[in-house]
Amino acid sequence: MSGRVRCAVFPVAGLGTRFLPATKTVPKEMLPVVDRPLIQYAVDEAIEAGCDTLVFVTNRYKHAVADYFDKAYELEQKLERAGKSELLAMIRDVLPRQVRAVFVTQAEALGLGHAVLCARPVVGDQPFAVLLPDDLIWNRGPGATRQLVELAAREQASVVAVQDVPIEQTRSYGIVATRDFTGRHGEIRGIVEKPRPEEAPSTLAVVGRYVLQPRIFGLLESTKPGAGGEIQLTDAIAALLAEQRILAYRFEGRRFDCGSRIGLIEATLQYALDDESLAGPTRELMRQALRPAG
Ligand code: G1P
To answer: What does the pLDDT look like over 73-108, one tens digit per residue?
Structure first.
């Protein structure tokens, strides 16, 4: 695979119905884990992986995401006057200077594959990363996207992040069949979106991180609606398999499904326990919360 991965695509046009009523006005990507919105974690991970062009595929209800990455003049002035330089640096660092954000509208919610296709005019003819911000991946070492990008460069192939899931959960994920699994990666020989457990080719589930060749766009153009009546990225990846080598990669790190309420709670606890100033009080309140009432 030639070329550095510079573009990261963030499909953020989903409805977030599992978090209603909050998501009536707050996009799910703006829900916080401790003090940062989910989208910020994904953006930081892409930047750490070397991406300098961030493509947000949004819909007309998601102004909050664009506002978040915009400059907040009034707030900056206030913090500057008050001498609050740390907070000032924090809100300026939401997006480093060398990174550009591009917003693309997905007019109709036609599925993840369609959302990725909407990024084509910005990405053009180069390999790119896709990050689904709902999947929050915590790791002490290099972020998941960086791990994928490095493997993609080394192996000259597209790479899809995977993790093992219980068999009864296959219907919530893209599931891959692989061959020649050595260490953390193996070649994908089949991929299917949300199969029933009895039809799943394995229990290796796709997690929301991909490094893809631009050929995927051409294939997405002709991808028909699949599971759930949506244009699925998984189906275009299945078509790409017929032409190119694609690797499944068991990333290092812990993934939280922040598209679900319990996943968001779990992530919040993990990040709180990982924060020097919050770890002690969090442990204490967990002890108290678990104490029998009375
Ligand atoms: C999407 C993909 C699916 C993948 C999942 C990971 O599904 O279509 O293949 O396994 O993300 O989170 P969604 O969760 O958006 O329904």
So the answer is: 888 888 888 888 888 888 887 788 899 999 999 988
**Do 177 and 190 form a contact (C-beta atoms < 8 A)?**
yes
pLDDT score for 87: 86
Does the N-terminal peptide bond of residue 21 adopt cis geometry, omega within 30 degrees of 0? yes
Indicate the pTM of the whole model. Answer: 0.94
**Which domains, from first to last, does the chain contain?**
7-290 (3.90.550.10)
Helix (H, G, I), strand (E, B) or coil at 108: coil
Radius of gyration in angstroms for the set of CA atoms belonging to the chain, rounded to a whole number: 20
User: DSSP string of 75-115?
Assistant: HHHHHHHTT-HHHHHHHHTTS-TT-EEEEEE-SS---HHHH
- CA–CA separation, 99 vs 241, rounded Å? 32
Whether ligand 1 lies within 6 angstroms of the CB of 135 is answered as yes
- The residue behind tokens 């599992």 is 18
Atom of ligand 1 nearest to the CA of 232: 8
CB distance 193 to ligand 1 below 6 Å: yes
For ligand 1, is residue 207 a contact (CB within 6 Å)?
yes
Q: What is the pLDDT of residue 2?
A: 57
Continuous H helices in 168-255: 215-221, 233-241
Q: Dump pLDDT digits (tens) for 157-185.
A: 999 999 999 999 999 999 999 998 888 99
pLDDT per residue as tens digits for the range 273-285? 999 999 999 999 9
The conformation of residue 158, written as its DSSP 8-state character, comes to: E
Distance CA 67, CA 91 (A): 12
Task: Among 18, 134, 162, 173, name the best residue to mutate to test ligand 1's pocket (greatest count of ligand atoms within 8 A of Cβ).
Answer: 173
